[in-house]
Amino acid sequence: MRNRKALFCLIVVAGMAYANSLFAGFVWDDNSLIVQKQAFFSHPYDAFRILVLSDAPAGMKTPYYRPLNTLSYMLDHYLWGLHPFWYHLENLLLHLLVTALFYLLLAEVFANKRLAFFSALLFGVFPVNAEAVDAVFNRNTLFCALFSIASLLLLAKGGRKWAAMSLLAYFLALLSKEPSVVLPFFLLSFSLVSRQNFKIDQHVLAGFFGMTALYFMIRRFVLGVFIAKTGLSFSIARLKLVSAVYFEHFRLFVFPFKLNALYTEHLISFSLFKAVTVFLGILLLLYFSLKRGVPVPVRAGAQWMFWGLLPVSNVIKIPSAPVAERFQYMIVFGFVLILGYLMDRICQKRAAVGTVVVAALCVAFGVRTFERNFVWKDDASLFSSMIMADPGNVIGRGDLAITYEKQGDLESAAREFRAALVSEPGDSDARTDLGVIYAEEGNMKKAVQEFKTALRFNSGFVQAYLDLGVAYAKEDRLDQAAREFRQAITVGPAVAQSHFDLAEIYEKEGRSKEAADEIQNVLRLDPENMNALEYLGKIEGQAAR
């Protein structure tokens, strides 16, 4: 099979599977990482600041250093503003490019174009990959895979020039997402076990580890940590979590149809059956990785899976979620390589049977991927799907409720918050949000009750004090409102809104000096707060008259 025909077929099939993703909007973290940062993206000189910032929403800091991802959003914003079609098109094109490079890599390394085609075809439509392609905020995963595969392809060509370009591609992968750190370990282990089939220059290998060390030094400078503040943990609770996480990853490889955008620890809880299954699964990966006589493609796939699973195992706990389908995007390379080898072997013996099996898998995977794309079209669809997959998902219900609230559907929003509180009665965030809805509906009695209950569960929750104070102010209970705002300042003195709300109470009571003092506190904490500047001018103007 000629490369051009194979690549054309791969692009067409994978493109068809994801065609409907182009018409989705911004969902979930797209809003905080892209939409809400448009003011930042509007200043090109801030591109240099991105190199020394964590990959996080405005005003936050996370243990993620992924500057290429944020730079791409800045470029997108410059080119087409906030039109989601173009962002999704870029994600799709990146996925198609990853699929094409994966084919070229396998064809180059194993000199078997049918194996390469089958593996890349299955990767292109594999349902678990939908999350990485459909959500714009997961572009870091696509970049990481793209540069990792490009690095291996360049390395396979041989020669110093290609090796230098391979190292550069690997460094770009590191600047895209953390899981790429396993690449040097894969190269080392694969070269040691497969000396007859694969050799790598020791200096080049040292260069990969050197790039890794440089990357961690940059992380330490930018984020203040080498890995994550949580660090390694081998407690019983953590080992149970790791076991449950491994099981879920294995399940998604074997049965990539029951999907969920948010896997909570409740959903993937530990069991003895899971622990035994994981133990056997890891032993099987090690067997295929190390056993002499194992076909080289199977060995490569097993080793890739073994190393790829380590960063997402939660030995170092992942802050965002214990399991996510986007975590598997890189690891799927190893699984489909093994699957592609098996399909190739079937075709060698019975071509018709092998072709039918590959076609059936491709159709099944492609249809499921196409269906999954609809889930990511908007927040309401996404969060509803989380709840359908896991009715006890409090986070999903809360996010769906907030979505309904933004749409003006207060009844549906209140229903979801109440359902969340059935599963998690002590969720102060949900209680406070429910109280806000009651206040918007004019039911101040229920609103005050929810705010007070939230504070019973979390006495340090500043927002609950603020919302309770606002509720009292609406009923002209100014003394009680001022008391809650002062309590909010005591609990969270760095929250500017507490001072602003208290200033409004003082101004209503005719205490202009105290109001002005509180506005000065707001400006001390937030010097560019235009509302505070305007309010201060208003107070000073009234005093002058």
For the CA atoms, what is the radius of gyration? Answer: 27 Å
Could you name the ranges where pLDDT drops below 50 across 5 or more consecutive residues? none
**What is the chain-wise order of helices and strands?**
HHHHHHHHHHHHHHHHHHHHHHHHHHH
Strand element count: 0
The number of distinct helices, counting runs of at least 4 residues, comes to 27
Taking the alpha carbons of the first and last residues, their distance comes to 87 Å
* Fraction of residues in β-strands: under 5%
Biggest pleated-sheet summary: none
Helix content: over 70%
Number of domains: 2
Mean of residue pLDDT?
90
- Estimated structural class: mainly alpha
Describe this structure in words.
By secondary structure, the chain is an all-alpha fold. Helix content is 70%, strand content 0%. It has helices spanning 3-17, 30-33, 38-41, 47-50, 67-80, 84-110, 113-125, 130-134, 139-157, 160-174, 183-193, 202-223, 236-254, 272-290, 296-309, 332-349, 351-375, 379-389, 394-406, 410-423, 428-440, 444-457, 462-474, 478-491, 496-508, 512-525, 530-544.
A few lines on this structure:
With 545 residues, the chain is mainly α. The chain is built from 27 helices and no strands.
List keywords for this structure.
single chain; 545 residues; mainly alpha; Serine Threonine Protein Phosphatase 5, Tetratricopeptide repeat; 2 domains; 27 helices; 70% helix; 0% strand; elongated
